[in-house]
Write a structure and sequence with these properties.
Order of helices and strands: HEHEEHEHEHHEHEHEHEHEHEHEEHH
Oligomer: single chain
Strand content: 15-25%
Largest sheet: 7 strands, parallel
Number of strands: 13
Number of helices: 14
Distance between the termini: 21 Å
């Protein structure tokens, strides 16, 4: 007996329905925690047979044409793309300080976007800001945030802020933004990266934007004392940003400039190899949240030395903000045998799957005719 194609299609739809998710947020390069989260969500949506489009909300340093990835060049083209892209779920990702520009972006998504609206709030430092402390129900921010069907907070402290903005508990989800991934064995860092890694001990790594809040000049200055005790030490700085020229000048002014490698943007799959191979990941910040690179390093059993921001996960070696002497002491105390004692790991996509469950809560499968 031959089965009708229409009936077959209906049976497939009954078993699994397809969503179109539109994500809005920064798109790499430069690499960052938010766009890593977005790309992990997109990859998992693809793996489950769904469609995922992206509209970049910040300027990428390099634009490579990709299907369903849009880079608006003006506010007009942004609004036009937002209005014309039909989707089941619109997922806006924001982080850092919540500026007027970000609130304008929130407003535009609410009035011009399609589908059920979700907001992911990645700014771990926001609860400590003046605006975060002043969060209240009867405010413009509270009014706009309550228009979202769900808000995803990347830690419980942020969730508490949204409660004070008047959101019901059922509409807030605490989902950490990181994915535990082991380095891909088929990927190998470029020879110059590998050479620096293999010829320096301890091999120190910092991953982030080249911006003032990452306090990178302190790391450069700290290398002077580190090299007195460990002449083969090396510091690699991965990332890009507004301070690149100034950092390069600071490095070139040092007698030990060959011991510091300003690597620029590096693909995340390569960065994971560097995090796995380094003797310590450094995260010295003036303003920071729950950094994804810190979580990745801890998962890979790489020591992390980081500024105490009040929300670091267990296992991080904490130092006070802008304390160069404390940074130097923590680096000097590193165990050279750490690399050799790591256990075997496997990928953990628990957090990404939690995001997809939120999508499924809000997206109903189509009815099957005759059902």
């Amino acid at each position: 007996m031959r089965v009708s194609p229409l009936l077959t299609h209906g049976l497939v739809q009954a078993k699994h329905w397809f969503m179109h998710v539109l994500q809005l947020g920064p798109y790499p390069p430069p690499e960052g925690g938010i766009n890593r989260n977005m790309l992990a969500i997109r990859e998992e949506l693809f793996a489950n047979g769904h469609r995922c489009s992206i509209i970049a909300t910040s300027r990428s340093t390099r634009v490579t044409p990709e299907d369903d990835v849009h880079h608006p060049t003006s506010p007009f083209t942004f609004v036009k793309r937002l209005f014309t892209l039909r989707c089941d779920i619109l997922h806006l990702h924001v982080g850092g300080d919540i500026t007027k520009r970000i609130m304008a972006l929130v407003f535009l998504c609410l009035i011009a976007g399609h589908g059920k609206k979700i907001l992911s709030f990645h700014s771990g430092g926001y609860p400590t800001t003046k605006e975060g402390k002043a969060a209240r129900t009867y405010s413009i921010r509270g009014f706009l945030f309550r228009r979202f069907a769900r808000v995803i907070a990347v830690n419980p402290t942020i969730a508490e802020v949204f409660s004070r903005y008047g959101l019901e508990a059922k509409n807030i989800r605490v989902i950490y933004p990181f994915v535990h991934c082991v380095p891909d064995a088929k990927v190998e860092p470029a020879p110059e990266l590998l050479n620096f890694c293999d010829t320096h001990s301890p091999f120190l790594l910092t991953v982030g934007l080249l911006e003032p809040e990452y306090d990178l000049f302190m790391q450069i200055e700290a290398m002077e004392k580190i090299l007195r005790k460990s002449p083969d030490a090396g510091l690699m700085i991965v990332g890009s940003g507004s301070l690149e020229a100034d950092l390069r000048a600071a490095i070139d002014s040092k007698a030990y400039k060959e011991q510091i490698f300003l690597a620029g943007d590096v693909e995340h799959k390569v960065t994971l190899h560097l995090i796995d191979r380094c003797d310590a990941l450094l995260r010295t910040t003036l303003f920071d949240g729950d950094a994804i690179s810190v979580r990745e390093a801890l998962f890979l059993e790489t020591p992390v030395i980081a500024t105490d921001n009040g929300m670091r996960p267990e296992g991080v070696r904490l130092i006070p903000m802008q304390d160069r002497e404390a940074l130097e002491k923590q680096i000097e105390a590193l165990d050279e045998r750490q690399r050799e004692s790591k256990s075997v790991k496997s990928d953990d996509k628990t957090n990404i799957n939690a995001v997809l469950r939120v999508y499924e809560e809000l997206s109903e499968p189509p009815a099957v005719a005759g059902g």
